Amino acid sequence: MVVVNPLKCTGCAFCVPVCPSRAITSRGRAEIDTDRCVACLECLDYCPVAALCRGKNRKEPHE
Amino acid sequence: MNDRAHCDVLVLGSGMGGLATAALLARDGFRVIVAEKMPRIGGRCSTMDYDGFKCITGVVGVETKGIVQELFHRVGADFDVQEAGAPHYLINGQICQVPSRGGMKHLMMAAGADAMDVETVMNAITGALHWRTPSCDVALGDWLRQYTSNPKIIEIFQALVSAVLFVNVNELSVHTYFEFLRKLKGIQRFGYAPGGSIRLAQSLARVVLDNGGEIWTRCRVNAIKSHKNIVRGATVSRWGKSISIKAPVVISNVGPKETARLAETGILDHSYLRELDQRMKPAVITALQFAMDEPLFESNHLLVTGTQSLNSVYQPTMVCPEWAPEGRHLLVAGSAPRNCREPFDGNLEIERCLADLRAVFPDFDSRAKLLLAGTFQGAWPGMHSLPGEDMDRKTPVINLYNVGDGVKPLGYTGLPGVVATGIDVAEEVMGRNKILTGAP
């Protein structure tokens, strides 16, 4: 799954529309719904400040 | 071993400043590579598709008949922007249309200012525009308060500078404000790109590609390389590979602070780094985007006065229905905090903007559904510097330039400001190249 670095996230919400699982919400800072995140990692490429990174494996897309 | 590439000009970032300079230089025969970290180009002049809505990444309206359109003509790019007409103002709960002449006087009268007050302020503005520009040391708000004590007059100026210059009347120097009126005429004409703002970026990118240039997306810059204080290129990561790009000129569109970090600040002039630290205070913007079944009001753009943070509301679908699924509308609300230099609380700013929208539009919650709430601040700000606080486009490293909103010329803002930096740097590079190669 993906985790947000709260010190880096600026709240631009660019990650919200690109998430195919609708796992991200943002109100001043992005938050990931860990039950929905399938760790496709698409959001990482759209974050302008590298605030998103791959966290500990909780759910992998190909499991 | 690293993969290698080389070009005449390496542009870091595909924002409109980077693409403007890339298009001009590619047209002039330079081999250009643009490195963009995201999968999509345009930076804050781009479009995100969300539930069929063309959501903005920053730029909503685009100035027409100005420097942006001139650039597109110069490089032969398609400037497809639908004119939106003059903005309307919301004053005392009433929507006022601004006439093409005498707009400011009309607005002040609409605010209920008495005729004497209006005349005094208008005389002061005329003097400042046509005789002597007031001092840099005085804030616009303090300057206005010399001529009027009517808070509604101050509020009109507040709405305009907050929406267009992303700063407040008490933070903007009156000198910079009048330079803005002189250079951009207060941005009187604007419009929307029918396919979304990304179409403008794509149009310039097409010029780069058609002239032998390359645009590399998903390409992250790791470091800008220099030797003996002359730039040599950059190392980037793409598809998991590290690539060393050799280039005699590097033009950075990633913001002056990030450019300095990538250029390894240790080698940069200390006075430059100190100046960067002191001047680069980012302009903070909040943009809320809503889906609606019906428009909230009858025009496409409102500048809002008398609110705590909301300054403008756009309904681009009134002009470009393509920005929403058929029969629906997109609403974009822009706000800026009343103090740009205070620590920013994104959630609080969003709540303030929502409270303003509810106060201004009855039944707002039942008519508009929030799609996206974006705050632009810190390392990804509305603009990298407040107007009048910009850095030089040249860096201490020879042939390493900055373009974009952190180095805009005095009096410029937003997209026109960014494009002006791209033109300036491209012309500088062309001029220097002629000297070096002896070309006529």
The average pLDDT of chain A is: 90
Order of helices and strands of chain A: EHEEHE
Q: Provide the helix percentage of chain B.
A: 25-40%
Let me know the average pLDDT of chain B. 93
Looking at how many chains there are and whether they match, the oligomeric state comes to heterodimer
Unreliable residue stretches of chain B: none
Radius of gyration of chain A: 11 Å
Task: Outline the low-pLDDT stretches of chain A.
Answer: none
- The count of domains of chain B is 3
Enumerate the strands of the largest sheet of chain B in spatial order, edge to edge or round the barrel: 9-8-17-18-19-16-20
What's the CATH class label of the largest domain in chain B? Answer: Alpha Beta
Number of strands of chain A: 4
- Structural class of chain A comes to alpha+beta
Largest interface: A-B, 17 and 27 residues
Total helical elements of chain B = 13
Proportion of residues in extended strands of chain A = 15-25%
Helical residues, percent of chain A? 10-25%
Tally the helices of chain A. Answer: 2
- Cα-to-Cα separation, first versus last residue of chain B: 41 Å
Structural class call of chain B reads alpha/beta
Query: Strand sequence of the main sheet of chain A, in spatial order?
Result: 1-4
Secondary structure elements and pairings:
The complex is a heterodimer of chains A (63) and B (440).
Chain A: E1 2-4, H1 15-18, E2 24-26, E3 30-32, H2 42-46, E4 52-54
Antiparallel strand pairs in A: 1-4, 2-3
Chain B: E1 3-6, E2 9-12, H1 16-27, E3 32-35, E4 47-50, E5 53-56, E6 62-63, H2 67-75, E7 82-83, E8 88-91, E9 94-97, H3 103-110, H4 115-130, H5 140-145, H6 151-164, H7 174-184, E10 190-192, H8 198-210, E11 214-216, E12 219-227, E13 230-238, E14 241-246, E15 249-252, H9 256-262, H10 270-279, E16 285-292, E17 301-304, E18 310-314, E19 329-335, H11 346-360, H12 364-367, E20 368-376, E21 400-402, H13 414-437
Parallel strand pairs in B: 1-14, 2-3, 2-15, 3-11, 8-17, 15-21
Antiparallel strand pairs in B: 4-5, 6-10, 7-10, 8-9, 12-13, 13-14, 16-19, 16-20, 17-18, 18-19
